[in-house]
């Protein structure tokens, strides 16, 4: 007979899972809106200077953005299903998010159009992504995620 230890999820586990799901679903919503907005709506939301740069985003940056948000949503779903696949998917999502921000951090025209606070959202995304990675790896280690 095999002796296995099954860790029952705590309230913190479920709260974190709900927040992970909400955050990543919101990211998917923003991605969808960014990809489907008309030029006029994009200019209205982000300003004319940002709209002028919209078609200059490199394909690799947009692809990394898609991988980051959809991978994060999939990871959050796996997390709530208590599957250990959540941890590596959160890692992939975090790496993709970092890659997606490289162009915006290295393009002078983008930084000028976005203004002085252009770095705020990328920092929030990276910090929350790192939290998701840390927490999900912790839950794999303690046996909550199998």
Query: What's the rounded overall pLDDT mean?
Result: 93
Number of domain units: 1
- Report helical residue fraction: over 70%
Question: Distance between the terminal alpha carbons, to the nearest Å?
Answer: 19 Å
User: What would you report as the Rg, rounded to the nearest angstrom?
Assistant: 18 Å
Biggest sheet architecture: none
Structural features, described:
- The model has no long low-confidence stretch (mean pLDDT 93).
- The chain is 77% helix and 0% strand.
- With 146 residues, the protein is mainly alpha-helical.
- Helix 1 runs antiparallel to helix 4 (59-80), helix 4 runs antiparallel to helix 5 (86-106) and helix 5 runs antiparallel to helix 7 (120-141).
- It starts with 10 loop residues before the first helix and ends in a 5-residue tail after the last helix.
- The protein has one domain.
- The chain has helices at residues 11-36, 39-46, 48-53, 59-80, 86-106, 108-114, 120-141.
- It is elongated and about 55 Å long.
Structural descriptors:
146 residues; elongated; mainly alpha; single chain; 7 helices
Question: Topology, please?
Answer:
Layout: H1 11-36, H2 39-46, H3 48-53, H4 59-80, H5 86-106, H6 108-114, H7 120-141
Helix pairs in contact: 1-4, 4-5, 5-7
Short overview:
The protein is mainly alpha-helical. The chain is 77% helix and 0% strand.
